[in-house]
Amino acid sequence: MSDYAASLDRAFEQMPEYLTTDVRFSIPEPIVIIEGKTTVLKNFLEIADAVNRDPAHILKYLLKELGTAGKLDGSRVIVQGKFTNETIRSQIAAYANEFVICSECGRPDTELVRSDRVLMLKCTACGAHRSIRKRRVRAAVAKDAIEEGGTYDVKITGVGRKGDGFTRVDKYTIYVPKTIKGEIVTIKVNTVSGTLAFAEIVERKSTE
Ligand SMILES: [Zn+2]
């Protein structure tokens, strides 16, 4: 690759990425990092700013959807458990669809108001208003905490009857043959069946 092409590549990498490309409404792409047993959403407040909603409201929604606990920490959010970028991203997009974007005109120029104890989304652009839909349960959400073909860094927390190490991520128990308790490994998930998953080692990191 030429120097020019390389620097062009770098320039693109440095450009902020956005979940939405509409010029009227850009939500920054979530920056998600798994740290130990927690997941850190580094640019949470920036996202809250972009959707123009109370950070506490967004956080409450996120935690409920992810089925976990968490807290605001400066401009970041730290949640218990390991969640992929894609999971967080889809939750933020779902939040925006439900609590921010007008379903009539598609604009984000809206406000939440309470009328007869019902939460309504009022659009200041076109005047439309709708009630906030009843939440579906979160079953569909947590399922992509891990997915087939995905690679994850995990700590092996136990050993099953057949001698294979296992770990738990979200609701899943992931079996990883040839591992021992306490070992930190990079795994590739080969099969997910219900709440059971089977993975192989990609790399051994360390042992506690
Ligand atoms: Zn509207």
**How many domains, in number, for the residues?**
2
How much of the sequence lies in strands comes to 25-35%
Uncertain stretches of 5 or more adjacent residues = 135-143
Average pLDDT score:
84
Q: Rounded to an integer, what's the Rg over CA atoms?
A: 20 Å
Characterize the structure shown.
The protein is α+β, with helices and mostly antiparallel strands. The chain has 2 domains: 3-107, Defensin A-like (2-Layer Sandwich); 146-207, Nucleic acid-binding proteins (OB fold (Dihydrolipoamide Acetyltransferase, E2P), Beta Barrel), CATH 2.40.50.140. 25% of the residues lie in helices and 35% in strands. The strands form 3 sheets. The protein has a 6-stranded mixed beta sheet with strand order 8-12-13-11-10-9, with no helix packed on it. It has a 4-stranded antiparallel beta sheet with strand order 1-2-4-3, covered by helices on one side. The protein has a 3-stranded antiparallel beta sheet with strand order 5-6-7, with no helix packed on it. The protein starts with a helix and ends with a strand. The structure holds zinc ion.
